[in-house]
């Protein structure tokens, strides 16, 4: 059975994507998904060759047909998201701001003149690609679009189909930062979560929230402390707190400028020979695999 | 001159130093004698309080209206389930089920119900706390863990602030939460770091603010004089760089213990003072 490993971080900028790319390289034969659809970066390191492009529609949106509109104002009165804007120029009294529209359809339903079109919107694209490590599913959310949670779910379901078809052992998922809708969509039903944190006060604070979320959904979770040597005392505190919350630390990675160097060379950092970070990430990967195998045996 | 100016600090990528910049700017503004409020709209992971250490003196809950169905009045017509775009209310075997967590609070179901069976109640999704950090008015939102939709809470944080300079710490990314945070701002500062990931995400974020039509500029964090990625990008796009914060280990160490370069690292007070002056000037306040 394919195992889905989802890398998340709570706080942004902890090195989540660099680490995910290294795991992909170490797993050798794996499927990959980039679920950080808001700010997708994994493709910059894995250089996928896009094989299939598909439109994504996360929902509907409304637009007023000027010729039919009598300017009665019903839509403006009913829209709770401030998306129906009153114009100062005389031509059309009301227009719908597509960025503010939540796609609830209320205006269209109640317009007495049937002057509001309510149809599927294209909010982005998703891709099936190949990389030198295996198949990859990724996406691009259109600028200022919503419904990233739906797009995340779509990417995950597609990568799962491909991984199962090809009999691959792992799916490595680069998840989004935060604890909101795209994160919830990334972690529900995954086999395990690898949380990447850094030893800062903010890192610790955000970790507490993301661990609370993971425990809320009862997902097995492991922790990697990145750049642990920036503040070793803080790393110890974080490790203790994580253990107490039932999250095992599987790795500590040194602060290493080669991580940025690897990014510039478009390589996962584990492929940079003789670097401290590469050695640490290798150790972490083997620890993680041991934990996952042990957990599978128990269950 | 309008008495109010709102500057939002945003970035496509997380962890670029948004909170460092917005909190430092707030301190610089207070020291320069401005009436200033700091609004932490990164409600999924609010961090500003770790640096500004405010005294909180008020707290209130923020909710969205969700439907309550009176089964006795319901005639099981199914109209509520048909209008709902989010599968938050469904009619199965003459029973109405509601799923509060999926509800966006649009009010459609209550409006269509022919039997008047639907009323609304508020369901809390997070809280807002307010207080002061020295001369800075402080507000932040806190999304409850397990909640998916942050925009209503972000909009509520945005509605606080002061009748002076408001500095908004926006969430990372480019989708609905960020847009709720920066919409209506007078000026946006995009914080980036000069790495391939940083520039890729800056590109998306710059596209977003352009789409929203808000004047903006870039602040480069962890700047290294040998690396011209950010400068090249901004030159090509015609975006101004208002400040370059050096890649200085002392800043990282101060940050790790919850201290700002503005007050904790010698030499940075001037940098943020100048950034404040140029941002206010660029925003034509
Ligand atoms: S409800 Fe229909 S007719 Fe009335 S202003 Fe809106 S679009 Fe025009
Ligand atoms: S669809 Fe809903 S959110 Fe969009 S404009 Fe109409 S009422 Fe407003
Ligand atoms: S208020 Fe809107 S989103 Fe909520 S249940 Fe009713 S129709 Fe659905
Ligand atoms: S619209 Fe009103 S009457 Fe019809 S099924 Fe829903 S709650 Fe019942």
UniProtKB/TrEMBL annotation, chain A:
4Fe-4S ferredoxin-type domain: from which residue to which, for each copy?
A: 60-89, 92-121
> Which keywords fit this entry according to its UniProt record?
Iron, Iron-sulfur, Metal-binding
Name one molecular function that GO assigns to this entry: iron-sulfur cluster binding
Which Gene3D superfamilies does the record cross-reference, listed alphabetically?
Answer: 3.30.70.20, P-loop containing nucleotide triphosphate hydrolases
Superkingdom to which the source organism belongs: Bacteria
Entry-linked SUPFAM superfamilies: 4Fe-4S ferredoxins, P-loop containing nucleoside triphosphate hydrolases
From the Swiss-Prot or TrEMBL record, give the protein name: Electron transport complex subunit RsxB
The species this protein was found in: Pelotomaculum propionicicum
From TrEMBL, chain B:
The UniProt entry's coiled-coil ranges are: none
Q: GO molecular function terms here? A: iron-sulfur cluster binding; metal ion binding
CDD domains, per database record: SIMIBI_bact_arch
The domain of life is Bacteria
Q: In this protein, which residues make up the domain named 4Fe-4S ferredoxin-type?
A: 65-94, 95-123
Please give the start and end residues of each transmembrane region.
none
Q: What is this protein called?
A: Iron-sulfur cluster carrier protein
- Recorded source organism is Pelotomaculum propionicicum
**What keywords would UniProt list here?**
Iron, Iron-sulfur, Metal-binding
């Amino acid at each position: 059975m394919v195992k889905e490993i989802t890398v998340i971080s709570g706080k942004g900028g902890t090195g989540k994507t660099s680490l995910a790319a290294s795991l992909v390289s170490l797993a050798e034969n794996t499927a990959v998904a980039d679920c950080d659809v808001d700010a997708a970066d994994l493709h910059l390191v894995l250089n996928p060759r896009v094989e299939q492009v598909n439109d994504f529609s996360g929902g509907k949106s409304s637009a007023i047909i000027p010729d039919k509109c009598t300017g009665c104002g019903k839509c403006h009165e009913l829209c709770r998201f401030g998306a129906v804007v009153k114009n100062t120029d005389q031509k059309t009294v009301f227009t719908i701001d597509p960025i503010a529209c939540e796609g609830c359809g209320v205006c269209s339903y109640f317009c007495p003149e049937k002057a509001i079109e309510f149809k599927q919107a294209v909010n982005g694209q998703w891709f099936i690609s190949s990389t030198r490590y295996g198949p990859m599913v990724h996406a691009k959310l259109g600028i200022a679009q919503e419904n990233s949670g739906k797009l995340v779910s779509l990417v995950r379901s597609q990568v799962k189909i491909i991984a199962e078809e090809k009999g691959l052992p792992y799916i490595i998922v680069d998840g989004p930062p935060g604890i909101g809708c795209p994160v919830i969509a990334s972690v529900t039903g995954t086999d395990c979560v690898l949380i990447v944190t850094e030893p800062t006060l903010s890192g610790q604070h955000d970790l507490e929230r993301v661990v609370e979320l993971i425990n809320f959904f009862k997902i097995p979770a492991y922790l990697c402390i990145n750049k642990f040597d920036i503040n070793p005392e803080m790393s110890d505190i974080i490790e203790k707190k994580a253990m107490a919350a039932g999250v095992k630390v599987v790795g500590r990675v040194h602060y290493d400028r080669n991580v940025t160097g690897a990014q510039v060379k478009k390589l996962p950092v584990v492929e940079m020979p003789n670097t401290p970070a590469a050695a640490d990430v290798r150790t972490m990967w083997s620890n993680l695999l041991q934990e996952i195998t042990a957990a599978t045996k128990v269950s | 001159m309008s008495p109010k100016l709102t500057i939002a600090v945003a970035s496509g990528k997380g962890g670029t130093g948004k909170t460092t910049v917005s909190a430092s700017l707030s301190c610089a503004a207070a020291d320069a004698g401005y009436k200033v409020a700091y609004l932490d709209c990164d409600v999924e992971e609010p961090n500003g309080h770790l640096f500004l250490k405010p005294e909180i003196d008020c707290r209130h809950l923020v909710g969205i209206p969700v439907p309550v169905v009176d089964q006795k009045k319901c005639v099981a017509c199914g109209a509520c389930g048909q209008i709902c775009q989010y599968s938050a209310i469904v009619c199965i075997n003459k029973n109405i089920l509601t799923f509060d967590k999926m509800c966006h609070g649009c009010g459609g179901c209550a409006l269509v119900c022919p039997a008047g069976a639907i009323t609304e109640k508020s369901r809390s999704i997070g809280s807002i706390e307010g207080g002061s950090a020295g001369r800075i008015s402080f507000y932040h939102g806190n999304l409850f863990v397990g909640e998916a939709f942050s925009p209503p809470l972000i909009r509520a944080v945005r509605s606080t602030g002061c009748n002076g300079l408001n500095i908004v710490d926006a969430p990372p990314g480019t989708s609905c939460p960020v847009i709720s945070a920066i919409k209506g701002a007078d000026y946006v500062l995009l914080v980036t770091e000069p790495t391939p990931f940083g520039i890729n995400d800056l590109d998306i974020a710059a596209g977003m603010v352009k789409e929203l039509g808000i004047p903006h500029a870039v602040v480069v964090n962890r700047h290294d004089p040998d690396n011209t990625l950010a400068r090249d990008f901004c030159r090509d796009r015609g975006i101004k760089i208002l400040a370059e914060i050096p890649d200085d280990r002392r800043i990282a160490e101060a940050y790790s213990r919850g201290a700002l370069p503005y007050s904790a690292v010698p030499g940075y007070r001037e940098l943020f003072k100048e950034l404040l002056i140029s941002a206010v000037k660029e925003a034509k306040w």
